[in-house]
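Handout, section B. The chain below has 240 residues.
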Amino acid sequence: MDDVSLLEGLATTRAIRRFEADAVPDEQLAAILFAATRAPSGSNRQPFRFLVLRDGPAAAGAKALLARAFRSSWAAKRAADGYDAGTGSDPASPKARVQRTMQQFVDTFEQVPVVVLACLVRYRPPNPYEGNSVYPACQNLLLAARAVGLGGVMTMWHAPVEAELRQLLGIPDGVAISATIPIGHPAGQHGPVRRRPLGELVYEDRWEQLAPWAVDPPGTRHTAAGPPREERDENHNGEI
């Protein structure tokens, strides 16, 4: 168990894509899935379901399908986002490090100790808001994994093989596969995540009006990831 407070866990739960080969004990799986199922949902219907893939009869086939989808999805993203261009050609650059991590992640996907399919049992037609009743549980799962010394990442790269996955695992048509979450013992470690300054992300009273109290804690480190400021400015019709 990592002795971290809730607020510290929120600020230090990284997306983990590199895993040790060690199996995840049943007790840890039960603990993090218990935490996941404590999440809120509309009218407390609890429509979330978690299909856990480890080393069962269907897991190997499902992981192989997912590995194929993850590799093709990363290849497309790598080309579209220019990971091999610009600073990506410098092995020491952050861009190149991300590229190496992602490539290792997809190349070894079959060896991920645990893959969790986060599903949603639909009780009404699909709508843009149904994620409200499953994604809080996914975040609970990742935070709980952080607390017990595990790590994971939430992805949607199951989409290219979803039909085959449904058939293999017997997932009914009325159930959405909302996320694929690989989980295991981190080969690296958790630590402070980097985001844009709080003042860029929080407004008060009206759109893009600064909130003077929205100040990062001392020592916070930031990232330049995301659309440049000028690009964001073009999306509000000239109003500041």
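Note. Residues 194 and 222 are 5 Å apart (CA to CA). Compare this with the example in section A.
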